Amino acid sequence: MTKHHVKMTVNGEDRDILVEPRELLIHTLRDQLDLKGPHVGCETSHCGACTVDLDGKSVKACTMFTVQAAGKDITTIEGLGNPDALHVLQESFREHHGLQCGYCTPGMITRAHRLLQENPNPTEEDVRFGLSGNLCRCTGYQNIVKSVLAAASELNAAKEAAQ
Amino acid sequence: MIPAAFEYHRPDSISAALAILQDHGDDARVLAGGHSLIPMMKLRMADIPHLVDLQDVADLRGISVQDGTVSIGAMTTQAELIASADIAKAAPILHEAALQIADPQVRYMGTVGGNIANGDPGNDLPGLMQCLDATFTLAGPDGSRDVAAREFYEAAYMTAREDDEILTRVSFAGTDAGYAYEKQKRKIGDYATAAAAVLLKKDGDKVSSASVAMTNLSDVPVFSKAAGAALVGTACDADAVKAAVAAMLDDIDPNEDNRGPVAFKRHVAGVILGRAIARAWSRS
Fold first, then answer.
1. Is residue B132 less than 8 Å (CB to CB) from chain A?
2. Is the pTM of this model over 0.90?
3. What is the pLDDT of residues A51-60, one digit of tens each?
4. Torsion angle defined by CA atoms of residues B35, B36, B41 and B44, in that order, rounded to the nearest 10 degrees
């Protein structure tokens, strides 16, 4: 089958990769680009562990072929923060014990990031509804929701201070 | 889970997409949001030698409301439906239903056209489109044709669309009727155990028109003409709702699956329709 050159922006860097059409975006990110943040969970588009941001949408990278992402701008958890400079959401998850085993966390934070872009002042219900495509099998949802709400407050306070 | 190998096509016009379908016959299939098709390909339950990605076909996008007629391009996503002020105004039932489809990530990708044309009895929009008495426009090698939503579904995954046709748009009359889309599901992201779409118009204190359709209670969506007829002319009281539910139960034909046995599904269908009628009436 014909391989395709796919150009896309990943975490701000232009990438040009060669893929078979059947290669899923999650495998390109993890195996070709060595971005191990997006996780392979259920592989059936239910759990959201593979969530990445693509042109301002949260998508499940296990249910998209890399060729579909040609020309797109992708952000993974690695593009949000790093160990020396955590993203506000990452800091908040640490502060509020928003993770137990941590497997769902990259997907949770990547999704929460988009949610807060779209709705900077979410209610608890908004957060629960907005994160309903991400499963935590430690079932630690209470603290995840708390972490996202705290991050929203912090981001809003920082925005106000800057004005 | 890796699908079988395939050739990927990304045409930028309806005519170019149709030409690929012509060249490859039933070896080719169109890809919209992919959230029904790609999982089937990964499970190798769908083997598609030629995949035709429609994302670059601009003519398949866009929502418009003109002279009261709502027209929605097939590649419009559920997220775009939810964000549309035009839809919220001209067809709030569609806004309410789209919020109950799958989960946020799936709604960014999942499309109106895919949900309608796939023919999966679990999909929400087919029943809803029957409730709205929508028209589907199909483009094929010999031009376009229109098919009524109420005539489109033949069996599970079998529709009036031919292999060399593409669903391009859906259209229907906008409505200010009282509305409700009520869906019972086991969890977010699951298909309905039972769902009901109801539109009701009121004249004085009586129902002047009623449209009822049910989802995932047969191998096709069920437009229940008899359930609507049972409500018209009544004050939508308990007896009328009971008669409508009884009429609906005569029209559905659910199968046992992991959502429950037939008796349970029939019970849930009655409860859900009762709730949908009550909410639609309160909004009429």
1. no
2. yes
3. 999 999 999 9
4. 140
